[in-house]
């Protein structure tokens, strides 16, 4: 009771990628079991900006740092908060947990739980397979029956109250316990013999039972949302219920015994040992290297991922891996099997987002701020299709710290739109290839050059920086991305944390933008990818902004890869353009003047990037660094590809350990840390600014 006093104070609350963290004044009302927040302390007497019911909530310190924690309410709402230091975080977390426990227990006392039912996994199962024994009365219906009571005719069914949800939660906890016992029983089986713990059917049972619990938690969360909506009013007609992340952590329910390394260590050939022993970063200069575009040749590599054979053949490996993962686990440090890899680095994937450089350059040709914002949105939405290589969702190589990728594009000036309404090239892909070949005979004045450089600037967390510029048009883009991947049961989610900045120096405009989340679905069958989440594009100078929603496939019905968005003038709140369609096939743009434009991305021209030959690339340039892995993947030799991949990763770990022991910081080559982001060491805006100052001086 000594700890049940009300507390209050300032905390930082995370809103979204654009707004970021904001200071808010929080009040813990122990008597009511509420966490409220206000804009500031002076507005405390006004209505709270937000309120969370703490009964049934989960308070979780974050593993990101020592200051952050989350409050997950039973309604599904979440607050991500940050204290000034670890001591203050512990103070808030402990008080919130005490208040949560008090009010949750109070609900339980007022509403006694259902009589406990239990199943028993037969330890003496048949010689062929472990069996589940249960009494006749303990069928699935009775187990999940949360107490249906027949009502008199004409009476309305009462709205489900939070205490009934507590009963459901209890029954689900029992199911989770049974699933945990099932996993233990399977793992206690011998490693060899007629029935082993690695039996493919049993591995399937482990994986699908975890997915079932994930689905049940999704359904439970839908019930919570339904209850919350009934308190506020019914859901509007036509509302779809989307797939939801589990709101109750199951991390402690899926411990599969002793940690197992995956894949198992195998003997290394001499070539791999040599590759691993080279201490290249210590010998390489970290001075930036200026790449001459004239040394680059048009890329002839085609990395379309069409082969399904490897995924089907390695099904048991996937099941074995899934059985070791926990729901919500961060996959950053998990070693994934080689056969799911694309034949390119993540840094090169970022370059492939620039495969329509003619649309990129056309942005600055817009005659008005409105037209330039619309052109940027058009370019942004057409960039993701080419970034995906084929319909099969595979994973690019995780870049090694210090890894770089360089390339460029040459675009005939006649291909770049100058007038409104002609943003998209009319050339077919085959015509575009012919045009790019003809460039060899053209003079420098006949084409624009877009240069690109990317670097892996951090290993933990994995952060990449990339930069592209067109000097002739005085425009450049700088971005940094932290990829956070999590295991979601039968899918994998990747959050792209970071921000990009497009600078149009001719107009003095800067556009900030973010990236959507990516999901790999159906990882047990034919994996496929989709994008999800809301992104924002803003130009502070002109007052124009864009809001774009990437829609994941709804739980019931709905289309794949759907995207919607709008461009508006913030001052007048006027919508000047709307967009809808699919980000990988057809987009429809509707403008304020009533005109409509359709863009078929499958027929949109693609400009091949230009890359230096392998023999001219540096030791840490992506294609040369991953050369042996890529060659082995093309040959279908997964064992050899795994050996080379592991050698690179072990060398990275050894060098990281050495730097930690000697307290030697890592020095980046092309990007500099500025605040929470990374900026190219010599961006075009610095060069243009220096030239302008020199001109003014003269």
Automatic annotation (TrEMBL):
Region listing for Disordered, in residue ranges: 104-136
GO cellular component terms, semicolon-separated: cytosol; Golgi apparatus; late endosome membrane
Catalytic activity as recorded in UniProt: a 1,2-diacyl-sn-glycero-3-phospho-(1D-myo-inositol 4-phosphate)(out) + a 1,2-diacyl-sn-glycero-3-phospho-L-serine(in) = a 1,2-diacyl-sn-glycero-3-phospho-(1D-myo-inositol 4-phosphate)(in) + a 1,2-diacyl-sn-glycero-3-phospho-L-serine(out)
SMART domains linked to this entry: PH
Localization: Golgi apparatus, trans-Golgi network membrane; Late endosome membrane
Main location: Golgi
Membrane-traversing stretches: none
Pfam families registered for this protein in UniProt: Oxysterol_BP, PH
GO MF, one example: sterol binding
Top-rank lineage group of the source organism: Eukaryota
GO BP terms, alphabetized: lipid transport
InterPro entries reported for this sequence: OSBP_sf, Oxysterol-bd, Oxysterol-bd_CS, PH-like_dom_sf, PH_domain
Stretches with biased composition (Polar residues): 117-136
Keywords, alphabetical: Acetylation, Endosome, Golgi apparatus, Lipid transport, Lipid-binding, Membrane, Phosphoprotein, Transport
PH domain residues: 4-101
Record-stated family: Belongs to the OSBP family.
Free-text function comment from the UniProt entry: Plays a role in regulating ADIPOQ and FABP4 levels in differentiating adipocytes and is also involved in regulation of adipocyte triglyceride storage. Weakly binds 25-hydroxycholesterol. Interacts with OSBPL9 to function as lipid transfer proteins.
Subunit structure: Heterodimer with OSBPL9.
PANTHER family from the UniProt entry: OXYSTEROL-BINDING PROTEIN-RELATED (PTHR10972), OXYSTEROL-BINDING PROTEIN-RELATED PROTEIN 11 (PTHR10972:SF46)
Name of the protein: Oxysterol-binding protein
Organism name: Mesembrinibis cayennensis
């Amino acid at each position: 009771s000594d700890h049940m006093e009300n507390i209050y104070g300032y905390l930082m609350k995370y809103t979204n990628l654009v707004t970021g963290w904001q200071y808010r004044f929080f009040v813990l009302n122990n008597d009511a079991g509420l966490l409220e927040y206000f804009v500031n302390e002076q507005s405390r007497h006004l209505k709270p900006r937000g309120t969370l019911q703490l009964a049934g909530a989960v308070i979780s310190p974050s593993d990101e740092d020592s200051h952050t924690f989350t409050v997950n309410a039973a309604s599904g709402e979440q607050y991500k908060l940050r204290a000034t230091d670890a001591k203050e975080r512990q103070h808030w977390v402990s008080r919130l947990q005490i208040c949560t426990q008090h009010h949750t227990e109070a609900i339980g006392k007022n509403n006694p739980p259902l009589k406990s039912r239990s199943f028993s996994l037969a330890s003496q199962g048949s010689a062929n397979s472990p069996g589940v024994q249960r009494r006749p009365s303990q069928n699935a219906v009775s187990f999940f029956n949360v107490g249906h009571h027949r009502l008199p005719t004409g009476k309305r069914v009462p709205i489900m109250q939070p205490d009934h949800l507590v009963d459901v939660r209890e029954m689900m906890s029992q199911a989770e316990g049974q699933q945990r016992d099932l996993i233990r029983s399977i793992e206690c089986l011998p490693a060899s013999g007629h029935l082993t713990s690695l039996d493919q059917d049993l591995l399937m049972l482990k994986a699908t039972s975890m997915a079932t619990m994930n689905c049940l938690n999704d359904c439970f969360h839908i019930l919570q949302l339904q209850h919350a909506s009934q308190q506020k009013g019914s859901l509007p007609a036509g509302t779809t219920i989307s797939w939801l992340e589990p709101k109750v952590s199951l991390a402690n329910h899926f411990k599969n015994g002793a940690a197992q390394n995956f894949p198992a260590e195998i003997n290394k050939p001499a070539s791999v040992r040599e590759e691993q022993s080279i201490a290249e970063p210590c010998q390489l200069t970290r001075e930036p290297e200026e790449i001459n575009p004239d040394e680059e040749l048009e890329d002839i590599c085609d990395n379309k991922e069409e082969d399904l054979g490897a995924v089907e053949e390695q099904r048991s490996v996937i099941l074995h891996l899934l059985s070791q993962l926990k729901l919500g686990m961060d996959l950053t440090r998990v070693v994934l099997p080689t056969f799911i890899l694309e034949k390119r680095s993540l840094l090169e994937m970022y370059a492939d987002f620039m495969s329509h450089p003619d649309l990129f350059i056309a942005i600055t040709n817009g005659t008005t701020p409105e037209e330039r914002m619309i052109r940027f949105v058009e370019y942004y939405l057409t960039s993701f299709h080419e970034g995906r290589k084929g319909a099969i969702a595979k994973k690019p190589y995780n870049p090694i710290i210090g890894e770089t990728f360089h390339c460029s594009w040459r675009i005939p000036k006649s291909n770049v739109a100058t007038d409104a309404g002609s943003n998209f090239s009319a050339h077919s892909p085959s015509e575009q290839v012919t045009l790019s070949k003809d460039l060899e005979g053209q003079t420098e004045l006949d084409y624009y050059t877009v240069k690109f450089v990317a670097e892996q600037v951090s290993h933990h967390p994995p952060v990449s920086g990339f930069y592209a510029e067109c000097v002739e048009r005085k425009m450049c883009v700088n971005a940094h991305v932290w990829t956070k991947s999590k295991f979601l049961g039968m899918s994998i989610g990747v959050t792209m944390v970071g921000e990009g900045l497009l600078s149009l120096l001719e107009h003095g405009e800067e556009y900030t933008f973010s990236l959507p989340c990516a999901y790999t679905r159906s990882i047990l069958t034919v994996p496929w990818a989709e994008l999800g989440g809301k992104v924002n594009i803003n130009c502070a100078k002109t007052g124009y902004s864009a809001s774009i929603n990437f829609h994941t496939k709804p739980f019931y019905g709905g289309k794949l890869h759907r995207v919607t968005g709008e461009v508006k003038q913030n001052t007048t709140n006027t919508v000047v353009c709307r967009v809808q369609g699919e980000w990988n096939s057809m987009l429809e743009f509707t403008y304020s003047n009533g005109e409509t434009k359709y863009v078929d991305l499958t027929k949109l021209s693609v400009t091949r990037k230009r890359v230096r030959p392998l023999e001219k690339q540096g030791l840490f340039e992506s294609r040369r660094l991953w050369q042996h892995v890529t060659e082995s993947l093309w040959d279908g030799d997964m064992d050899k590809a795994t050996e080379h991949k592991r050698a690179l990763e072990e060398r990275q770990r050894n060098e990281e350990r050495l730097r930690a022991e000697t307290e030697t910081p890592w020095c980046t080559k092309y990007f500099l840390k500025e605040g929470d982001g990374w900026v190219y060491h010599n961006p075009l805006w610095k060069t243009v600014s220096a030239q302008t100052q020199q001109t003014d001086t003269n």
